[in-house]
From TrEMBL, chains A, B:
Pfam family for this entry, one: MarR_2
HTH marR-type domain ranges (all copies): 1-146
UniProt protein name: MarR family transcriptional regulator
InterPro entries, sorted: HTH_MarR-typ, MarR/SlyA-like, WH-like_DNA-bd_sf, WH_DNA-bd_sf
PROSITE patterns associated with the record: HTH_MARR_2 (PS50995)
Organism, as annotated: Streptomyces chiangmaiensis
Length: 169, 169
DNA sequence: GATACTTGGTTCAAGTTTTAAACAGTAACT
DNA sequence: AGTTACTGTTTAAAACTTGAACCAAGTATC
């Protein structure tokens, strides 16, 4: 089959999207670096933990949730541990396992950094969108995520290390 | 002033957006890595060059266009030069200057990788959106970019190395 | 036309991140 | 018991990023 190139409208939308998403990610990173001393990825690991029951998660689950390799997560968590925002604990039910726990200091940092972070998101995004656009954005992004996840199923274990069924604490 | 948190709708949209954009960037990166041997950033530098008149750009302009520091661009272009996709040339009118030129090999690589790249973008995004959604996406992203650029003006030279007026070939 | 100031771009060294391939220990299955 | 699969870490190498220092060339000032 011959290549289906983007239509002019799609092309414009795509360029818009790339420009915005890179610029936005950059802005967020810079602000978090300044105010929390870490990149968006690291911050999101803390944030994910703060959402988890008891603020703790098994490493593999955390890796899957944040969509990074276990190896990479080991590195990230080590750094966070050095910062004192995360602590590791063994897993009672599975002696191989280890559990990342958000410390009080980690929670405090999150709380200290959250206002600035939200402010960035507001000032960059939501302050300039109508309520309709907000729900449009959600719908569009959900379609994209769906598509990508379906795609992942299909090409499962095709180079993605973290394909696995879930387990729990 | 007290913090204006995100409304539940905004919160949902934001999570959707982050999930989609990270997943998408990841997917694109992986595919380009496989088929072009480079990340999205590097690819986009080549792509930007291919759009430029005569397929050449001054380093500073290229840095500004791709929104990275000159230092970082020097590194990127060195790597691309090693790959043979870019060549450096001195600038006749300004002897300090250097110009990055997309080589034929670079153009060939771009042409070889483009179909797969477009296919990723299609399969991840546009095949699942209505024409209305495509234009909504564009509108939304344009608002975001506007906001971020306005914001940049305000905090100009506040840690951003690449603030500068344009120059040309 | 010498002095300073700015700009374009690179270099350098240090630090951070990412990757992939082992690995050790434990669990699970037969 | 013996394999097989899983968890998470280690390791070594590579890739990337940063910021400061730097040089050379342009620009302005007097």
């Amino acid at each position: 089959m011959t290549i289906r190139w983007l239509t002019p409208e799609e092309e414009r939308a795509w360029r818009s999207y790339i420009a915005a998403s890179w610029l936005l990610e950059d802005t967020i990173d810079r602000r978090l670096q300044r105010e929390a001393g870490m990149s968006h990825l690291y911050y999101s690991v803390l944030a994910r933990l703060s959402d988890a029951p008891d603020r703790r998660m098994r490493m593999t689950d955390l890796a899957e949730a944040t969509r990074i390799t276990r190896s990479r997560l080991t590195y990230v968590v080590s750094r966070l541990e050095k910062d004192g925002t995360v602590r590791r604990e063994g897993c009672p039910t599975d002696k191989r396992g280890s559990t990342a726990v958000l410390t009080d200091a980690g929670m405090a940092l999150l709380e200290r950094a959250a206002p600035g972070h939200v402010e960035t998101v507001r000032a960059s995004v939501f302050d300039h969108l109508t309520p309709e656009q907000v729900s449009q954005l959600e719908a569009i992004c959900d379609r994209i995520t769906e598509a990508l996840q379906a795609n992942e199923e299909r090409s499962a274990c095709d180079g993605l290390p973290w394909r696995r069924r879930s387990s729990s604490a």
